[in-house]
Specification:
Elements: E1 14-23, E2 27-32, E3 37-42, E4 63-72, E5 77-81, H1 87-113, H2 118-132, H3 136-145, H4 158-171, E6 177-186, H5 192-204, E7 212-218, E8 221-228, H6 231-251, E9 255-257
Antiparallel strand pairs: 1-2, 1-4, 2-3, 4-5, 6-8, 6-9, 7-8
C-alpha cells in the first residue's frame, strides 16, 4: 500500500486483512494491512452456525474484510470478526481499497513525469492530505473538482504542482451520483393546481441544469431526482431548490413540507 497507519485500529473499525496462518483448527492469524499488525480471528467469529472446517471459509493468502472487536495494546493483540461484516460494509471497504490502489498507481506514474520516486512524491504531499482527508484518493478527487486545492502541496514547486495537477485532471474523471428526495406542496385555493405548478417552476427555473427532474407522485407529493458529478454539489443544488420553493410557497400561501 501507498501508506500505513500508525498505532492500533479502534474497535468497530473495518479493516482489510490477508490470511496469514490457520492454527489448531480454531484460530486464524491475519495481517491487518493498513496498520501492519497481526490480528486474531477465532472460529466463533468466522461465520454464524457450526463450522467443522476453517478452510471451508478461509485459506492462507486470501484477502478478507474484518471488523475490529477488541484491542489490547498492552498485549499487542487485536481481535477481529469476519461474520460481523455486512455485505454493504465489505463492498464499501473493497471500493475504498480499489481507489487507494488506483491512487498508488497514479503516484507511480506521476512521479516518473516529475523525475522523482513514488516515495519522494508521497513524502512531499502526504501531510496536507491527511490533515483534511481520510484517503489519498479522496484528496486527489477533490483537487480534480477544485483545481485551486493543488496549492495545498506547498512542498512541490510551482512547475511540479502544475504538472501534478494536469496529471490528476487527466486520470480522474467525475463520478456521477444520484440523489432522490421528495416534498409535499398543497393548495386549497380554487386555482391551487396552477399555483403549485407556478411555485415549482419559479423555484426550479434558476437552475440551468438538465439532470434535475421533478415528478408528481400523488396527493400533492413530488419526487426530486438530481444526477451530478459529486454528492456535495447535488445536495447543494437540492438545498437551494428547497429554499427557493419554501419562499415561493410562503408568498402563495401554500402548504409546504419536505
Amino acid at each position: 500500500m501507498l501508506y500505513t497507519k500508525d498505532g492500533f485500529p479502534e474497535v468497530n473499525d473495518i479493516v482489510y486483512c490477508s490470511v496469514k496462518k490457520i492454527s489448531g483448527g480454531n484460530t486464524v492469524f491475519v495481517d491487518i494491512e493498513e496498520f501492519e499488525k497481526e490480528g486474531v480471528l477465532t472460529i466463533s467469529e468466522i461465520a454464524p452456525g457450526r463450522i467443522r472446517n476453517l478452510r471451508d471459509h478461509v485459506e492462507e493468502g486470501r484477502k478478507i474484510v474484518c471488523k475490529v472487536i477488541r484491542v489490547d495494546e498492552s498485549k499487542n493483540r487485536i481481535d477481529v470478526s469476519l461474520r460481523r461484516v455486512s455485505v454493504i460494509m465489505r463492498n464499501q471497504k473493497l471500493e475504498t481499497i480499489k481507489k487507494e490502489e488506483f491512487a498508488e498507481k497514479m503516484y507511480e506514474d506521476a512521479a516518473k513525469e516529475l523525475s522523482m520516486t513514488k516515495d519522494d512524491l508521497f513524502e512531499k504531499t502526504y501531510e496536507p492530505i491527511f490533515e483534511e482527508y481520510e484517503t489519498v484518493f479522496e484528496s486527489l478527487y477533490e483537487v480534480m473538482l477544485d483545481n485551486t486545492k493543488i496549492e495545498m502541496f506547498t512542498d512541490l514547486d510551482k512547475q511540479q504542482r502544475e504538472s501534478f495537477l494536469k496529471f490528476i485532471n487527466d486520470r480522474i474523471k467525475p463520478e456521477e451520483v444520484t440523489i432522490k428526495k421528495h416534498f409535499k406542496l398543497v393548495s386549497t385555493a380554487k386555482e391551487g393546481v396552477e399555483e403549485v405548478k407556478l411555485a415549482i417552476s419559479n423555484a426550479h427555473s434558476v437552475f440551468n441544469y438538465d439532470k434535475f427532474d421533478i415528478t408528481y407522485k400523488a396527493a400533492g407529493e413530488f419526487g426530486v431526482t438530481i444526477v451530478h458529478e459529486d454528492k456535495k454539489s447535488a445536495d447543494k443544488m437540492y438545498n437551494e431548490f428547497i429554499s427557493n420553493l419554501e419562499k415561493e410557497a410562503k408568498s402563495l400561501k401554500l402548504s409546504f413540507s419536505y
